Amino acid sequence: MSNFSEFKPLNEKTLIEYIKSIPALSSKLANNFSDLSVKEVGDGNLNFVFIVSNTNGSFVIKQALPYVRCIGESWPMTKERAYFESLALKEEGKLSPDHVPEVYHFDRTMSLIGMRYLEPPHIILRKGLIAGVEYPLLADHMSDFMANTLFFTSLLYRSTTEHKRDVAEFCGNVELCRLTEQVVFSDPYKVSEYNRWTSPNLDRDAEAVREDNLLKLEVAELKSKFCERAQALIHGDLHTGSVMVTRESTQVIDPEFAFYGPMGFDIGAFLGNLILAFFSQDGHADQANDRKHMIFFRESTLWICKMIRQLSYID
Ligand code: ADP
Ligand code: MG
To answer: Does domain 123-311 have CATH number 3.90.1200.10?
Structure first.
């Protein structure tokens, strides 16, 4: 019986044994394990990510453990999320192959995905935005990704039978949906254990949010749409930390929150993150790049604003 017939969290050593037992992975390395490099890079909140490479090839292994990584075992979270992430990556990859890393291997028992390594100079978009880099193709690429994944999984394109079958399948991702309901639509508006803000500077602002009943009514409306509207297969966590970029390439990763929900949740998350990036620019300015062109509304160089306009069909 294989060593991996039941769930086992992997480390940099045991991962090599695992790869040797999986032809779809070891063949990527031409079965050559002498010059292998394995590095755990997970800077994400939830899972472990290993980069595996040798002179012949490379891939990424992402494994879900049965808890939230950045909090620890005190916050249990189903490792079945890896199953929904792999399903979503495959579906999105079919619909938008230029903007989603290819899945090479999935193991449900081990909650583990093997996928294309997005090699340097790919970096997380949020880091690029903070560094003040401009990405001229980003709006085109992200609108392609969203249009293709959202339209082609909605009833604008699919039959009722296909749609209901997929809605039912992704209903299984209930724990991750519940997490979003809590941390996006409930916690920020009340006193809650995992809320964090810069204190004391923003104490007043946080309090103002908690006491704004009209805002809470609006958010309750949005929460109800999020829970009830099975419109299309949404990514579910489409912030700038879920996109890897170079100037030429845009790749959407990390769809473990995917389910059938309102399209606006993805579109709004991405636009909202761009707006945050825009307003944080002056805080990130340094001598080398004073970001003046980003602070003042000078149309030609205000690329983040331009992109928001492009994505919002204002242009
Ligand atoms: P989590 O679900 O824990 O948030 P992510 O999927 O966001 O995990 O991955 C965490 C980090 O690992 C990313 O921020 C990125 O730096 C790196 N990473 C993830 N997938 C890849 C990939 N396919 N290629 C290169 N780096 C990746
Ligand atoms: Mg992530």
So the answer is: yes
Distance between Cα 186 and ligand 1 center (Å): 27
Contact predicate 261/109, CB 8 Å = no
Rounded distance, CA 1 to CA 174, Å? 33
| 273 Cβ inside 6 Å of ligand 1 | no
Question: Which residue has a Cα nearest atom 1 of ligand 1?
Answer: 44
- Give the CATH number of domain 12-115; options: 3.40.50.300, 3.40.50.2300, 3.40.50.12100, 3.30.200.20: 3.30.200.20
Judge if the beta carbon of residue 47 lies within 6 A of ligand 1: yes
First to last CA, the chain: 61
Report CA(243)–ligand 1 centroid distance (Å). 9
Report how far apart, in Å, the C-alpha atoms of 185 and of each of 111, 208, 231, 260 are. Answer: 28, 16, 19, 17
pLDDT tens over the chain, length 315 residues: 467 899 999 999 999 999 999 999 999 999 999 999 999 997 778 899 999 999 999 999 999 999 988 888 888 999 999 999 999 999 999 999 999 999 999 999 999 999 999 999 999 999 999 888 999 999 999 999 999 999 999 999 999 999 999 999 999 999 999 999 999 999 999 999 999 999 999 999 999 999 999 999 999 999 999 999 999 999 999 999 999 999 999 999 999 999 999 999 999 999 999 989 888 877 777 766 666 655 444 343 467 878 888 887 654
Ligand 2 geometric centre to CA of 235 (Å):
12
